[in-house]
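Page 37, continued from 36.
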């Protein structure tokens, strides 16, 4: 029996889906295990109810459905996602190409039954979600990190810098650090409007750049150059200073201009 979670910010839409699922029950064994009226509550409900399927609205005021699905894909055993959408034809084609199912509003019971009949669990780190998000120009508002067996959402607005260290990337906010296995390159691609690369191993939030400081080079006892001078980024929120590579200096300087 499929356990189903309904996610839509509009109560009439949730009531309509509940009714349609009742009509589908004779064709597909199912049970509604919960409802959520937004993205954040949806993620909490998934952790609590462990549904097999999430009927997920695309447009919600707190978090877009695409982003919710990307956070769900980071779970060990993510549920299948069926998008509920009123997107135009171009966006629907993007879903079709990536083989993600969707239901076009107003939802029909026959179409819903077909979608439920071919539901499969998404594999962890489902790549198709990333491709769909890129095709629609959708960037996340939060990053998902795993800490002590729990999935935590880190607001992108709170991130001061991202730094690659060994196989992890450190997410530095104003209050603490988190670790993620996402690559610095993929984060740079997704959030290029928010962060600028200052070094091969670091990205800094553009809004967090307070200024720059020149670090002089040094010489050894024989007067030979021991280290060349370089620039550092001064941050608005933290006392930490981050080195800027010679290659990235022109880009970083330009990014800091008002």
């Amino acid at each position: 029996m499929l356990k189903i979670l309904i996610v839509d910010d509009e109560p009439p839409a949730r009531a309509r889906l509940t009714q349609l699922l009742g009509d589908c029950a004779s064709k597909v064994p199912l049970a509604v295990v919960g409802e959520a009226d937004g993205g954040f509550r949806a993620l909490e409900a998934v952790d609590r109810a462990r549904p097999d399927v999430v009927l997920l609205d695309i447009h919600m005021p707190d978090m877009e459905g695409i982003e919710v699905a990307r956070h769900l894909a980071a779970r060990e055993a993510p549920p299948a996602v069926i998008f509920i959408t009123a997107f135009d034809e171009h966006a629907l084609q993007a879903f079709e190409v990536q083989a993600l199912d969707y239901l076009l509003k107003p939802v029909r019971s026959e179409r819903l039954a077909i979608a439920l009949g071919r539901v499969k669990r998404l594999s962890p780190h489902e790549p198709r979600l990333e491709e769909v998000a890129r095709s629609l120009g959708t960037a996340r508002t939060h990053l998902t990190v795993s800490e002590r067996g729990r999935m935590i959402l880190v607001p992108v607005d709170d991130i001061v810098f991202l730094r690659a260290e060994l196989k992890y990337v450190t997410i530095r906010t104003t209050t603490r650090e988190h670790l993620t296995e996402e690559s610095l390159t993929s984060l740079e691609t997704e959030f290029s409007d928010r962060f600028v690369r200052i070094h091969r191993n670091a990205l800094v939030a553009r809004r967090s750049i307070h200024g720059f400081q020149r670090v002089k080079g040094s010489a050894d006892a024989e007067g030979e150059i021991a280290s060349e001078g370089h620039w550092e980024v001064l941050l608005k929120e933290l006392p930490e200073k981050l080195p800027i590579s010679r290659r990235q200096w022109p880009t970083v300087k330009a990014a800091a201009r008002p």
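The first strand starts at residue 2 and ends at 7. Flag for discussion at group meeting. The domain at 154-255 is CATH 2.40.50.1020 (OB fold (Dihydrolipoamide Acetyltransferase, E2P)).
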